[in-house]
Amino acid sequence: MHVPDGIVPVSVAAGGFAAAGGVTWLSLRKIERAHTVPRNGVPKASLLTAVFFMASLIHFPVPPTSVHLVLSGLMGVVLGWYAFPAILVGLFLQAVMFQHGGLTTLGVNACIIGIPALLAHRVFTLRTRFGARRRAAGTAALGFVAAFVAVALGAAAASLLIVTTVPAHLDAVVERTAVTALLFAHVPLGVIEGMFTAIVVLFLLRVQPGLLEERF
Amino acid sequence: MRAVHASNLTFGYPGGTPVLDGVTVGLDPGERVGIIGPNGAGKTTLFMLVCGVAEPMSGGLEVFGQRVETGAFRPEIGMVFHHTNDQLICPTVREDIAFGPQNIALSRQEVEERVDATVSATGIVHLLDRAPHELSSGEQRLVALTGVLAMMPRLLILDEPTSDLDLRYRRRLIQMLAEMKEHTLMIASHDLEFVLETCDRVLLLDRGRVQADGVPADVMSDSGLMEAHGLEVPHSLMAQWHRHSAPAHADSDG
Amino acid sequence: MRAVHASNLTFGYPGGTPVLDGVTVGLDPGERVGIIGPNGAGKTTLFMLVCGVAEPMSGGLEVFGQRVETGAFRPEIGMVFHHTNDQLICPTVREDIAFGPQNIALSRQEVEERVDATVSATGIVHLLDRAPHELSSGEQRLVALTGVLAMMPRLLILDEPTSDLDLRYRRRLIQMLAEMKEHTLMIASHDLEFVLETCDRVLLLDRGRVQADGVPADVMSDSGLMEAHGLEVPHSLMAQWHRHSAPAHADSDG
Amino acid sequence: MLARATLAAPTATSLARWEVRLKLIGLLCLVFAFAGVNDVRLLPVMLATAFVVYRLSSLPFRYLISRLKVPGIFLVALAVVLPLFSGETVIAQFGPVALRLEGTVSFVSIAARFVSIITVATVLFATTPMPTLVRAMNSLGLPPLLGDMLLFTYRYIFQLAEDLSRARTAARLRGADLGSVRSVKTTAYIIGSLLIRSNWQAERVLAAMTLRGYGASRARSPRHAPQAWDVAGLVACVALAAVLALFPVLVL
After folding, report:
1. pLDDT for the residue A166
2. Domain check: are C141 and C193 in the same one?
3. What residue segments make up the domains of chain D, in order of their start?
4. How high is the pLDDT of residue B116?
5. Is B203 in the D-facing interface, judged by CB distances under 8 Å?
């Protein structure tokens, strides 16, 4: 789901940075509005980002290969507006430490993963509409949906981008097949992400519901 | 058959000095062995090898007569980590203790029985519905121990079991260990008094080698040996010396 | 002017039993006060109040004659946390030690001088370019202490400073504290021998109250008092008793 | 895994001593110019530039190879897809399999860009300690909050790597099979536990930072006055980048 260096034209890379810059600016503004001392949220956001970073290195076997978690949905759910800066930081560190993703494509990747994360957050806030009796089931279901949708959106964006920008000589049919194939390849990941996120949010709901409520 | 049999065990990272440098040691079933030594002596590494988590560079290692295969699951080996925090992962204490038994595919009823039995043995029934994360460090250590005991290990490994414990929990642990007659114990600890109270044999590990092996009171009262390895003779052994020498004159004190 | 003056200090969480329940205590500048008691006695909470991290429910609190305002930065108060890992926040030791001095807006040169001076005082020059996560727990504790000392605090608070320390580092710490004549010290520790060696006064805290306050050897040798609060008379004090009684007959031992 | 990923210790070469902000701008200019290279004739120039920069850094080539390994898998995939399926001009036919010109060309240029960018980026990050780099980015306009988050995250991922690995080991010793999809629940519990613990730890970290004056005043970032040498390096990079970027315009 990460677009590596050297693939997309420089105009797309630049566009990615511009968009990511805009969303970051918006996120920071929202954070500043919500807090008297915005910097006090930094340790929390950073430590949780570190957890997500480590979690995204865990592989699950999906024969014939294995997948690793993206966690865009869960990050949105837990971090709120901090999710976008957090994802930017995580992607930067991944690119620098593992050459996973890319440096020139950092902006593009941040948008592919970060914007769905913000969306996932919106989806997840719907859980307040569930009554106390169905709170757990509703939280789990929305956790699943939020994560699945975030992965699906990210995968769709990445696939479209790669297929349309890379080989200038593919015909339309092949292109469409490639996009569809890439999308379907992401279905197991979406399901695993959804399950994973649902279990984590249920866990947090039972042990420390505050982590799902507060927008530090 | 020996409980643990390590011969010439060596472990290290490429390019570095070896963490374990030819450790040969045998433990009989039911022995309670304390492992002392300064930080970085190789205590935790030895445990990781015995548990099959890390792979030795060379040397042989058998537990209960069976070669330790790296990565293979051996339910008869239980380990309570120094950082017990990392060992407690379920939303409630009850689930956490059931975690191990569930993994070895026991029936639901068997799992429940195991949980009940272990929990009442360690006296933490009142904690069952709490989240492990909100417990005090002493309680966490008891829960981690209970979770390991629920696997019914024959070899129980404790890494710094008294760190962060206050005296009440420390005493409780000493008492519990005293009652566990059928387990083979390996205990690494900086708390020499604790080792003195719970173990019937001690290994002094330093620079990856066994520097001494014997009866705890003997090894630990050897001030030259202890100081050579960054340790001190525990105060109680110094007091003991006085006590030993005192009785003849006890009447003149009264 | 007293270094610390707390009067009837109370702290708790809504609906729970109070963590501190009317603590009144005064420390003179230069005093070295050990705080002992079981887990949950309120030691760390007391420190959090003195540092201005938490807000008391009621009661008065002054440090060096000035009221403690919650959240206000008081560079003259330094605290080394129990979990030193939480305190080492920069990617390298050098930056971590410079973190505090930089925050009080010293010039670059002043910051460097402070770092150099403190680092050589605590003897960790060789660690400067290492990352905190690759240090041993003993080294981490020294670095955290250095980072706090670089702020030149007058009141130094240490929470369980010997936890996870092996004897080499423990001895080094004792020596360093002995040389720091001008600081007022507050030390919470389960390591009673350490308190005995470093402090000239001890407070026994339990259930949120000061249960005893006096000379360490006196308070800690009172076995009835100690046991009532989940503590034990340290072995060295028991040995001392023997030593005190022994001399008259010393010749007959030789 | 993380231990191997740790950045190489910055070496004492000229590139390590290059004033960080100028180095950052210079090398990033090169990287983005590389990303825009489409003309096949420029590929050798680009690769040569990357090679020279890497030589100047004195980093061992083994290190670069190790950095290229992981993302190289993606290249291998492209090496199969593009030359065989993209384009109409067949240059070679092996039974049903045809090697096509356009696909081969686009694969070669993607691969060249990819290798060049990673080479220069590796130099940038391996010769600059992360904190210095972030400080420089801050002084070039990166919002302070983002810089702080970057440094904190970087600081604590190593601790979390250890926590996570211990937690997984502990679970495995209690019989958990972490190599299966069924382990999703166990892994979710472990991550949930780490989130809760990190949340509490963050409170302690904040307290510790506040006690050392975090936020009391804006820390000054250390600045070295750039030497002529530093500026020359920047000029060279920008000039090269400009040539690469403007070549198509100039030639036409």
Report:
1. 66
2. no
3. 2-137+223-250
4. 95
5. no
Tell me which chain D residues have a C-beta less than 8 angstroms from the C-beta of A44: 198-199, 202-203, 206
Query: Is residue A4 one of the residues assigned to a domain?
Result: no
One digit per residue, the tens of pLDDT, for chain B of length 254 reads 899 999 999 999 877 888 999 999 999 999 999 999 988 889 999 999 999 999 999 999 999 999 999 989 999 999 999 999 899 999 999 999 999 999 998 999 999 999 999 999 999 999 999 999 999 888 999 999 999 999 999 999 999 999 888 888 899 999 999 999 899 999 999 999 999 999 999 999 999 999 999 999 999 999 999 999 989 898 888 755 544 444 444 444 43
Domain with C124 in it: 84-152
Q: In the numeric block, which tokens belong to residue D248?
A: 């198509």
Q: Is D217 on the interface with A (CB under 8 A)?
A: no
CATH number at residue C70: 3.40.50.300
In a domain, A3, yes or no: no
Strand order in the sheet with B20-27: B20-27, B4-11, B58-63, B66-67
Whether B230 maps to a domain, the answer reads no
CB B97 within 8 A of CB B107: no
Amino acid at B130: R
State how far residue D173 is from chain B, nearest Cα, in angstroms.
6
Strands B32-36 and B77-80: unpaired
Tokens of C44: 């760390």
Domains: count for chain B: 2
- Asked if D32 is an interface residue toward chain A (Cβ–Cβ < 8 A), one would say yes
Shared domain check, C162 and C46 = yes
Mutate to test the interface with B, among D174, D186, D200 (most CBs of B within 10 A): D174
Residue C98 contacts residue D214 (beta carbons within 8 Å)? no
The residue out of B152, B183, B201 marking a domain boundary is B152
Amino acid identity of B87?
Q
Pair B71, B2 in one domain: yes
CB-CB under 8 Å, C104 with D205: no
Same-domain status, C166 and C65:
yes
Consecutive H or E run containing B225? helix B223-228
Query: What SS3 class is residue B93?
Result: helix
User: How far from each other are the two terminal CA atoms of chain D, in whole angstroms?
Assistant: 49
The answer to whether residue C47 neighbours chain D at the CB level (below 8 Å) is no
Closest chain B C-alpha to C83 CA, distance in angstroms: 11
CA separation for the pair B56, B50 (Å, rounded): 10
Average pLDDT over residues C118-126: 92
Residues B21 and B63 placed together within one structural domain of the fold: yes
The whole-angstrom distance between B151's CA and the closest CA on chain D is 7
All residues of chain D having their beta carbon less than 8 Å from the beta carbon of residue A88 are: 146
CA distances from B60 to B26, B51, B153 (A): 11, 14, 22
What is the ipTM metric for this complex?
A: 0.89
CA distance B26 to B3: 8
pLDDT of A133 above 80? no
Q: What is the pTM of this model?
A: 0.88
Residue-number span of the structural domain to which A19 is assigned: 10-212
In a domain, C224, yes or no: no
Same domain, B21 and B144: no
- Give the number of residues written for chain C: 254
